[in-house]
Amino acid sequence: MTAVLGIETSCDETAAAVVGEGAAGQGVAVESSVVSSQIDLHAAYGGVVPELASRAHLELLPLVVAQALEQAGRRAWPPAPVDAVAATAGPGLIGALLVGVSEAKAMAVAWNRPFVGVNHLEGHCFAALLDHGDLRWPLTVLLVSGGHTMLVSMAGPGRYRLLGQTVDDAAGEAFDKVARFLGLGYPGGPAVERAAAGGDPAAFAFPRAMLGEGLDLSFSGVKTAVVNAVRRHPGASNEDVAASFQQAVVDVLTAKVLRAAAESGGQGICLAGGVAANGALRAAVSVAAGAAGLPVYLPSRAMCTDNAAMVAAAGRWQLEHIGPSPLDLPADPNLRLPLLA
Ligand code: KG4
Ligand code: ZN
Questions:
Q1: C-alpha span between 49 and 51 (Å, rounded)
Q2: What are the b/e assignments for 281-318, b being 16+ CB within 10 Å?
Q3: Do the domains 137-294 and 4-124+306-321 match in fold?
Q4: pLDDT for 245-304, tens place per residue?
Q5: Which numbered atom of ligand 1 lies nearest the CA of 147?
Q6: pTM value?
Q7: Which atom of ligand 1 is nearest to the CA of 273?
Q8: Which of 13, 149, 175, 245 has most ligand 1 atoms within 8 Å of CB, for mutation?
Q9: For the chain, domain boundaries
């Protein structure tokens, strides 16, 4: 019956959520999930300004937490509205992380309940588990966010093996840089996806780096190719460029996750992280996995981008299987996914 309040403030979303026991003891139930985006705050700068993000988290977090408790029908306390408080402890922007970690610790102490520090990347891996109770292990997870691009074999919650990763830019970073170059705005991923909807994905043959080799990935070449193509063809439509770029990235990600599953004995494919909200990627991976006879687990789009329900779910599992975190656990901007030896 453990209900966990989750807090996420690693970047530019201020989020809080409550998760509890799923129906008939199956998985977890999301009782509430509130995300306050700072998009308007950072849009004028074309990207996230760390100091502005921290200040906005400070102002917004108490309101977002109150709303999450309210929506979960958990306003009434003492003794405590929830059984534990979990917060993203890293990786992310240090000032932003500190706001969430400090507030979570303070609430845990005030309510005399355990505190759990959650790895943001592990949180993303839990997003698919929120909607699907009957997963078959190991899952092949394609984790694609603004700062990370990894292929992970997940033998179960907390059991991760790294299969491959980007050797340069993250996939989300490539979307953001291309969007900025084309003047499509911030955040880049959704802007590129919108522009791509009206374009021809075959208009430009952008490179599919490392397509035929191994499980590592590279996205800095395709970004440079976009810049060079636009300089060579100043009349090219943004829609065609966006569609061709998106197709190149989707082709590579799809081929790599299928290869990763085949090579590691994956029993299903799971997408996680902000780029997993991309409709073209979701469709391409679904088709390819279907052809390979593998089930695909797609978190809802809202659970792909940063949210606190995934943090609460990971924190709830951690509390039950590993235990609470010490109150002097630091926020760590460079925290890595804990991998099996
Ligand atoms: O997981 P996330 O919300 O935050 C990080 O942990 O980084 O991922 C954010 C990244 C950004 O680079 C954003 O442009 C990208 O995910 N993104 C998308 C889409 N929505 C968000 N990329 C492609 N298509 C989308 N629809
Ligand atoms: Zn994230």
A1: 6
A2: bbebbeebbeeeebebbbbeeebbbbbbbbbbbbbbbb
A3: yes
A4: 999 999 999 999 999 999 999 999 999 999 999 999 999 999 999 999 999 999 999 999
A5: 7
A6: 0.97
A7: 1
A8: 175
A9: 4-124+306-321, 137-294
315 Cβ below 6 A of ligand 1: no
Cβ atoms 189, 242 nearer than 8 A = no
Residue 1's pLDDT band (cuts 50, 70, 90): low
For the chain, give the percent of residues with pLDDT over 70: 99
Tokens 């074999």, located at residue? 153
Q: Is 11 in the pocket of ligand 1 (CB under 6 A)?
A: yes
Per-residue confidence band for 341, with pLDDT thresholds at 50, 70 and 90: confident
Please name which ligand lies nearest the alpha carbon of 310: 2
Cα distance between residue 209 and residue 272, in whole Å: 21
Is any atom of ligand 1 closer than 6 Å to the C-beta of 38? no
CA 224 from centre of chain: 25
**What integer pLDDT is reported at residue 186 of this predicted model?**
87
Q: What is residue 26's predicted lDDT score, i.e. its pLDDT? A: 63
Identity of residue 224: T
Q: How many helices (H) and strands (E) does the chain have?
A: 11, 10
The DSSP line for 71-109 is HTT----SS-SSSEEEEEEESS-HHHHHHHHHHHHHHHH
> What pLDDT is stored for residue 301 in this prediction?
97
Q: What is the CATH number assigned to the segment(s) 4-124+306-321?
A: 3.30.420.40
**Span from the CA of 180 to the centroid of ligand 2 (angstroms):** 20
CA-closest candidate to residue 224, choices 149, 164, 169, 166: 169
Q: Which CATH number fits domain 137-294: 3.30.300.180, 3.30.470.30, 3.30.450.20, 3.30.420.40?
A: 3.30.420.40
